[in-house]
Design a protein that fits this description.
Layout: E1 6-8, H1 19-23, E2 31-34, E3 37-40, E4 44-50, E5 56-69, E6 75-83, H2 95-102, E7 105-115, E8 120-124, E9 126-128, E10 139-148, E11 151-156, E12 188-189, E13 192-193
Parallel strand pairs: 1-5, 7-10, 9-10
Antiparallel strand pairs: 2-3, 4-5, 4-8, 5-6, 6-7, 10-11, 12-13
C-alpha cells in the first residue's frame, strides 16, 4: 500500500492520483520550503503568470496540497484558485462587489490548479469571514464562485468545504518509533456503507 504524497498523473488510476489524497495532510508533506520561506497547507499565496492575452497578471490561491508529478518526480503545489473582481464573470459583477473589492474582497472558487513551487512569490493574509477575524489581514473572502448546471452562481463562504488541515491535528511522532498508517476504503451506495 502507498502512503506517500499525492501524485499528479494524466492517467488517473490509483487513489493517490485523486483529489482526496492530494488534500490530506496525513499523507505526504504539510509544508514546503521555497527561497528560505516555509509555506504550509492552508496558507494563501500569490504568484505572477501570463494570462490568455500574454499579459502578466497576479494570481491568488490557497495551498491545499503538496504533490509529486508521476513522471518527472518534480514537487508541485495544488492550490484552490482565488479571484479578484476583474476575474468575476460578467453576470456576477455589481457595484456593491466592485466597492467591496476596493477594500480587499476576493472570491474563492471551486477550481483547483497545480503550479510549480518556484513561481510562488509570497504569502498573503486572507480572512475567511466564516472564522474568527485575525488581527491583521490584507484581503477577505465572503463568497464562493462556482458553476452549477452551466450557470455562474455565488454562495456564502459559510457553506464551503473545509480543508482537512482545519480540523485534523498533525502530531510529530518520536523519531525512534515506526509509523504505521492504514487506509479504510468505505463505499457508500443507496443501501448504506459496506
Amino acid at each position: 500500500m502507498y502512503f506517500g504524497p499525492g501524485i499528479y498523473s494524466d492517467d488517473k488510476r490509483e487513489l493517490w492520483h485523486g483529489d482526496i489524497w492530494h488534500k490530506s495532510p496525513l499523507f505526504g508533506s504539510t509544508c514546503i520550503q521555497i527561497n528560505n520561506v516555509k509555506y504550509n497547507l492552508g496558507e494563501f499565496v500569490e504568484w505572477h503568470g501570463s494570462n490568455s492575452n500574454t499579459e502578466t497578471s497576479v494570481y491568488y490561491g490557497r495551498i491545499v496540497g503538496f504533490i509529486i508529478h508521476d513522471k518527472s518526480k518534480q514537487p508541485l503545489v495544488k492550490v484552490e484558485q482565488i479571484i479578484n473582481f476583474d476575474s468575476l464573470p460578467r453576470s456576477l459583477k455589481s457595484r456593491q462587489r466592485k466597492n467591496q473589492s476596493h477594500i480587499g474582497m476576493l472570491w474563492m472558487t471551486d477550481k483547483s490548479i497545480i503550479i510549480e513551487p518556484t513561481i510562488i512569490e509570497s504569502k498573503i493574509r486572507v480572512w475567511l469571514t466564516d472564522i474568527n477575524q485575525p488581527d491583521r489581514y490584507e484581503y477577505f473572502i465572503e463568497e464562493i464562485v462556482y458553476i452549477a448546471n452551466g450557470i455562474w452562481t455565488i454562495r456564502s463562504i459559510n457553506l464551503r468545504h473545509r480543508h482537512p488541515i482545519e480540523y485534523i491535528q498533525i502530531q510529530d511522532s518520536p523519531r525512534e518509533l515506526p509509523i504505521y498508517k492504514f487506509f479504510l476504503d468505505i463505499y457508500i451506495d443507496k443501501f448504506g456503507p459496506f
